[in-house]
């Protein structure tokens, strides 16, 4: 990965931290993208020291703010000439049904709408590389998702989380279709059940975590392996629009098979995040 530029969202801890660490060990220039300045800078210090790589830095990114996402992209474009790998790793479970100032459910904005906007805005940078990659961290929970309940505050937090992860895979497939032949490959993955802070946002899940996570769940390092695989493996040079578990391609839920559903979700997402026509130029399929 020497000479390659990688962005990892949510890289201040858990799977994202371990993903960033492994890529830094392989020589990549790694941008830690997360909300907390303190945690982001701490991650930079640790990763730089452990990986013996000084090409690690932090840029503030708050996925609950569309303005913050745009600011992050502007800063990245001003400081980097290209982007080789974008890993949309950040995720959250929000037990309270809250909307952001952008009018979107907080958990769905963090898990899906934010990464959707971030990725679209960074496609021009990804296209500057002969072969670049987008990685979307989804979950086996996508099987319980319901597209018709996207951004619906009347559903429970588990349902909302599952739906956002289903959106990740549908977005992956639609983006891969739109970027076919450009050199940008797009894949999604299930990291498995991993012992991370994601489960500390719920009292019930925290109790479960204290009982079984240390015995049956993967460590964050183990959970990061499929993300790393999709970022570095030569086997993934041509695989696009696929879904992986444990570094192998597997079939996701049949809910992800409908191209019309993926297209409808895309159009709805464009409107909800406020994308402009010129920002969509690099991902628009010519009707001619």
- Beta-strand level of the residues, as a percent range? 5-15%
Helix content: 40-55%
Low-confidence stretches: none
Radius of gyration of CA atoms, rounded to a whole number: 17 Å
Distance between the first and last residues' Cα: 38 Å
The outline comes out as: globular
- Biggest pleated sheet: 8 strands, mixed
The first-level CATH class name: Alpha Beta
In round numbers, the mean pLDDT is: 90
Side by side, the strands of the main sheet go 3-2-1-4-5-6-7-8
Protein name: Retinol dehydrogenase 14
Organism: Pieris macdunnoughi
Keywords: Oxidoreductase
GO molecular function: oxidoreductase activity
Outline the structure in words.
Helices cover 44% and strands 14% of the residues. The chain is an alpha/beta fold and 288 residues long. The protein has one domain: NAD(P)-binding Rossmann-like Domain (Rossmann fold). It has an 8-stranded mixed beta sheet, sandwiched between helices. The termini are far apart.
